[in-house]
Structure prediction request, 336 residues.
Amino acid sequence: MTSKAKLLISLREKQGTPASGTSLAKELGISRVAVWKIVQSLVEAGYSIETGGSGYLLDPAKEKDFLYPWEFGERESLFYHYKNTESTMDRAREAALRGAAGGTIITADKQSAGRGRNGRTWVSRQGGLFFSIIERPRLTVADYSLVMLVMQIAAAKSISLICGRKAYLRWPNDVYINNRKIAGLTAEIAGEGDMITYLTGGIGINVNNNAPSQKAVSCAEITGNQIMRKMVLNTMINEIDSVKKLYNTTAAYSQGNRALCEEWNSMSDCIGAKTAVFEPESKDDNFAEKSGRILARGAFQGIDPAGRCIIKTEEGKLYFNQGSVSLAFLNVSHNV
Ligand code: BTN
Prediction:
């Protein structure tokens, strides 16, 4: 952990009482001048640290919701943060091509060209959590959706924990609360031969931002409180780790992952819902009405172990891969 991360932890532990430069220097094993320099750089980054006769004071009441790498302690070296960038997907791709390790996370406070699935725009207002995670799974390209199932399950679990209300999954990669979208995920993959070289999972969660339409909702609207984005991100990272461990997704599967698929199905609110299957549409709105040609109608039966959706039609069951179609669920009516 860098001295900056350690100093921040140390100032927070003091809970609003000042700490002298000498005591901080001793605790961190650095010089008083080095402490002073780190404090200056934190102040420049926006922290409100007061410097007085008794030392340095970080007022807990004035803490802001920063996503700087040093906010993530031991994981600091895996984080990159942008105040404003076109899309974290672009920054993640560049980092992956430079050789960034699996687990690297790119965050942004705002995105000027945030993107969703199928070429749609992802409106990325201040207060939302926007990040991309680089994964280097030992999986074939055909199995990439398993990685997305892990991230989607982890996102719903995290959001349920934070909102104190059950969040549900919708195929292919959405998270809903109360019939309103609270998070969306997308993926970009690079492969060599059959194998994935890297996969970038992009995740957008409405945390404190105004949701872009009535069909969407934010954590703040559900809970009535402002939520720290770094807390949401930490929860998400921990959940990804535990879902990966639970379902042993590091092994190379070619037949999908039955246990992971069962978990996904148990967390979806659309099983049995009347469903229309469309050609993937491309519209300038996260929550556009479906506009492509209808390919099938039937009942959504969940996913199979490979992450394909199953639609029961009058002619029998149809299976669709992620990315090949988009779905409209016509009668999801619960309100939990
Ligand atoms: C969707 O619902 O269509 C997926 C939305 C994914 C949005 C996230 S925000 C962080 C990352 N950067 C992007 O440009 N997109 C993803």
Residues 144-163 form the longest helix (20 residues). Residues 282-288 have pLDDT under 50 and may be disordered. Residues 274-329 form a domain with the SH3 type barrels. fold (CATH 2.30.30). The helical segments are 3-13, 21-28, 32-44, 88-97, 144-163, 219-223, 229-247, 258-266.
